[in-house]
Design brief:
- The chain is mostly helical.
- The chain has 5 helices and no strands.
- The C terminus is likely disordered.
Length: 111
């Protein structure tokens, strides 16, 4: 997955459904690392709390803007405060904000 970083929602939709969550997590992690001036090869635990990492509200606003642009959505910055880990934010994004990108296209056929 590392060689297939998403930069916009169309990139995510081109990835097989079973790899999309990982790709979304990589995008969110990349944006956080960038804000924290971390190298790509440095580890950032998915359950690390944003504010414990030293992120400021201004940095979260910038991350929100970048995610809005990449995912073609309008996040509220409060969602980043309410879901203060990569794990929680990715779950929220995949289940509520861009849920259609994670819908199983064959779900109706199996009923």
């Amino acid at each position: 997955m590392a060689d297939q970083r998403i930069t916009e929602i169309s990139d995510l939709l081109e990835i097989p459904l079973y790899d999309r969550r990982e790709a979304l997590q990589e995008l969110v992690t990349h944006e956080l690392k960038s804000a924290l001036l971390m190298e790509d090869d440095e580890y950032l635990a998915p359950d690390s709390v944003f504010f414990e990492l030293g992120l400021t509200s201004l940095q979260l606003s910038e991350i929100k803007y970048t995610l809005d642009k990449a995912l073609g959505c309008e996040l509220e910055v409060a969602q980043l405060f309410n879901r203060p880990t990569v794990e929680q934010l990715v779950s929220y994004l995949s289940e509520h904000v861009i849920a259609e990108a994670f819908a199983d296209p064959d779900a109706d056929l199996r009923r």
